[in-house]
Amino acid sequence: MIKKPLNIMCTLVLFLSFTLIGCTKTNESSNKNNTNNSSTTQSIPDKTFTLDELKKYDGQNGNPAYAAVSGIVYDVTNAEDWHNGKHKNGITAGKDLTQEINQAAHGTKVLNNLPIVGKLK
């Protein structure tokens, strides 16, 4: 009579072990996707911007809003938390915002869905 509860218990232990291993693997890959390193599959256009050129793309007076991060220039014109070249936290477009985004709680993962328009010289 002990064999049946023992078999059930062993099956339960195996099931939980495989479930926990699966969750660990899922969390590891999920954590890799939530790091602060921006990895994009988009190709980077050949267009290059100097800091002076980037200043023109401040989102004001009908201009698009661009922001550079780690040498890549992103179009933030239609990004959720941007309006007329201003982010909800007060930073503005037309600049290299590498330092600001590295200090932001969301990190660079928010860049993954933004169009890339070029590179910063």
Automatic annotation (TrEMBL):
Residues 49-121 form the Cytochrome b5 heme-binding domain. Residues 1-22 form the signal peptide. Residues 27-46 are annotated as: Disordered. The keyword Transit peptide does not apply. SUPFAM superfamilies: Cytochrome b5-like heme/steroid binding domain. Gene3D superfamilies: Cytochrome b5-like heme/steroid binding domain. This is Cytochrome b5 heme-binding domain-containing protein.
